[in-house]
Design brief:
The N and C termini lie far apart (about 40 Å). The strands form 2 sheets. The protein has a 4-stranded mixed beta sheet with strand order 4-3-6-5, covered by helices on one side. About 20% of the residues lie in helices and about 30% in strands. It contains 3 helices and 6 strands; from the N terminus they run H-E-E-E-E-H-E-E-H.
């Protein structure tokens, strides 16, 4: 048995939250999504996020990013529970992250 025990039913945490041995918590998503920027002209390097939806939800979000011109795709790999998007953008971190629906659209969008 693992010493990393899901605690959502015991402590009322959201589904997917687990308690680590040091007492801290970690969120575990159904789909892990990683964005890596290959452009040296930007200070944005990597972002790890996720969704409890299906991988198709993450793919649709990438399509929205492309439509908005946020980045170009260098490579995209996806499986049932993981997606890694290698991108190229010159946009700085403060212009890209959590703006224009990156990495996710606001709830009311």
């Amino acid at each position: 048995m693992s010493d990393v025990t899901p605690t959502s039913t015991v402590e009322g945490l959201p589904p997917g939250d687990i308690r680590l041995p040091d007492g801290s918590y970690q969120v575990v998503y159904n789909v892990d999504v990683i964005y890596t920027n290959m452009s040296a002209a930007s200070d944005f390097r990597i972002l790890r996020t996720g969704t409890n939806g299906h991988v198709e939800k993450a793919l649709l979000q990438v399509a929205k990013h492309l439509e908005r011109g946020l980045y170009k795709i260098v490579s995209l790999n996806a499986s049932k529970h993981a997606m890694h998007v290698i991108i190229s953008t010159d946009k700085p971190c403060n212009e890209l992250t959590y703006k224009q629906g990156f990495p996710w659209d606001p709830k009311d969008d």
